[in-house]
Amino acid sequence: MSAATLRQAKAMGGVGSILVLLSFVPFVGFLFGLAGLVMVLLAVKRISEAVSDREIFRNVLMAVILQIVGSAISVFVVIGSFFAFVGSQVAMAPFGPSFDGFGGPGILGAGAVMAVLGSLLAGLIAM
Hints:
- By secondary structure, the chain is mostly helical.
- It has 2 domains: about 50 residues; about 70 residues.
- About 75% of the residues lie in helices and about 5% in strands.
- The protein has a two-stranded antiparallel sheet.
- Strand 1 and strand 2 form a beta hairpin.
- The model has no long low-confidence stretch (mean pLDDT about 80).
């Protein structure tokens, strides 16, 4: 492959990276992020073909797949902890206010704060 191909791949990867950074734009950010991710993957594929090392593309593809799986696990853990927290509050409602973990009576059930913080930490570790 020629230097022009590497230059094109570099430009495509740069534009893709900028699009990934724009994924926080409301409403259309998801589309920007997805398009940017595809452009970066295509750029890495071209570069790996240009230097005749297919392992580069395989490693990047594996990293993207693991990031998606880790994000999904994290979302499920956080949603599960939220529903467990809400369920514990509904179950404790008939008994009135209880110790909230911060030194006095409050609206949270016993240990609810630590349970939510622990499950959020588990979600971050999974991510």
